[in-house]
Specification:
This protein has 108 residues and is mostly helical. Helix content is 56%, strand content 0%. It has a domain of 57 residues. The protein contains 3 helices and no strands.
């Protein structure tokens, strides 16, 4: 029997002879995370829309129960915190320079 320390040292002293090849179709961890987050964002939007529609129907059938509208507002606020609106950048930015020459005469 060898100790764990001796086995580790022996393994580390051996040269690396194998090369791990990555498939060209492999997805990077960042891309995988972006895909998962995008899917969850869409699912949460659908879930929120369904909840809001059902709550609106229940509120319409109730006799002015404001608790239902507060719950819908709270769920929407949580969604907005987790998935804030992303404003689209302008495609075209136009800056206009208007130069005016001011002529001054110093009268003494």
């Amino acid at each position: 029997m060898t100790s764990a320390k001796a086995a580790t040292q022996r393994a580390l002293s051996k040269p690396v002879t194998t090369v791990t090849r990555v498939s060209p179709d492999a997805v990077s961890p960042a891309d995988a995370l972006a895909t998962v987050l995008s899917e969850r964002k869409e699912r949460s939007k659908l879930g929120l829309a369904k909840y809001a529609a059902e709550a609106a129907e229940r509120a319409g059938e109730s006799d002015g129960d404001l608790g239902l509208s507060r719950k819908v507002r709270d769920v929407a606020a949580v969604h907005q915190t987790v998935w804030p609106e992303q404003h689209q950048e302008n495609i075209l930015s136009l800056n206009v320079l208007n130069a005016i020459k001011v002529v001054r005469s110093d009268l003494k």
